[in-house]
Amino acid sequence: MYDRAGPFSVGMGHFFDRLGEAAEKTVEETSAGPEGVKTKEAIVAITSDRGLCGGVNSAIVKLVKRNVEAHSDRIDATIFLVGDKGKDGLSRVVGKLFAASYKDVFKSPVTFDLASIIAEEISSRSFDTIAICYNKFKSVISQIPTKKNIAGLEFMKANAHLFDEYEFDTDIDNNQVLMDLFEFQLAAQIFGACLENSTSEQAARMAAMDNATRNAKDMLSRLTLLYNRQRQAVITSELIEIISGAEALQG
């Protein structure tokens, strides 16, 4: 599923990156903003519903915390938490910023419907930027905490003329078309990030369980060696006592 969803979300990202400026540059310019005016940013923090997966969840907690604290003077952050395991870590430091929490997401295959619900909730509010924090899957032994910035709906409206090269066969007005495109793009990016984070989670869990199994085998080997040494020491001690007793009787 990850292999199929990856090109889909990446393709959507490339489509919207063609809107004159890259999303990253747009977010930086928007975040700079007028002095004294804070940028409204939605942070989608994606964690797992289960533990025993190494540092996957703690990495996202640190990434979100670092992002909020570093830009607290110019960004008014609101957090949408996906997955249950990041709740404890985030609630201690940025709990007051929670807007919504979605748990039991990864106990069954992630669907585009769920991503659409989150995207619709974010779109219903007026955010200048959206940041998706997730673990990017690089390899079975490497997962990279990543923050993906997406420009808000106002950016699309301000650059609506860049869509002139596309012909939309629809009866609804352009603002509604832009709103639908924005929601679809956001849902696609969230869906892809959820799948990539889920893949990273499974890879990290496999590595963690492999390390735990290896450590358990090493511990068992050391305990077996220690037991054999103790047993041999007891046998040797008993033999010495028997031989000493026999010699005493003969003497």
UniProtKB/TrEMBL annotation:
One of its GO terms (molecular function) is proton-transporting ATP synthase activity, rotational mechanism. InterPro entries: ATP_synth_F1_ATPase_gsu, ATP_synth_F1_gsu, ATP_synth_F1_gsu_CS. The keyword DNA-binding does not apply. GO terms for cellular component: mitochondrial inner membrane; proton-transporting ATP synthase complex. It comes from the Eukaryota. It is a peripheral membrane protein. Belongs to the ATPase gamma chain family. NCBIfam families: ATPsyn_F1gamma (TIGR01146). F-type ATPases have 2 components, CF(1) - the catalytic core - and CF(0) - the membrane proton channel. CF(1) and CF(0) have multiple subunits. PANTHER family: ATP SYNTHASE GAMMA CHAIN, ATP SYNTHASE SUBUNIT GAMMA, MITOCHONDRIAL. This is ATP synthase subunit gamma. It comes from Compsopogon caeruleus.
